[in-house]
Amino acid sequence: MARCYSVPVPNRHPSIPHLWLVSDARNDAVLEQAMARLPRASGVIFRHHHLSDGPRKARFRAISRIARRRGHLVVLAADVATARRWGADGAYGAPARLAQGPALLRLVTVHSHQELAAAHRARANAVLISPVFATRSHPGGKSLGVLRFHLLAAHARVPVIALGGMTRATARRLHTTRWAAIDGLSGESDKSPTA
Length: 195
Known about the structure:
It comes from Novosphingobium aureum. The protein is built from seven helices and eight strands; from the N terminus they run βαβαβαβαβαβαβαβ.
């Protein structure tokens, strides 16, 4: 019976990268090295909420230059108008935050069927279904697991990116090629819980 949930999520939008490195205070010191290890044309989600506006914008510009030299897309955790103003390739966040604004790549985080429907209304180009597995970002938090991830992903009308506890090993376990991580793509062991 478990085999019926091991079908890979279809690749209906090949222009959406398969791997996404998510920036955070935890991986800032190794961010450049992590981007260099990503396959060309991967994605970087720039969060860096630990910085105030000026330093955050300066760090975003530095990371964007490096990422673009490697052919990576750079998406800013912000509303769509701010992402466009900063020169990002897209915006990342909750459906309500991304529902308005100019045409730009939208990556929307979802945790439930209700949020998935809201992501569709917000013109999401892809959804990050989270958290699939236990993460360091939210210790003790409830995760979806393989079955609930696939049940939710089956209702998505856009590409699905797995987030939460993702490493190369958990991506294989999940039977997906599209995934995002903080630690799992920053040089941490595949055996440790990641974000």
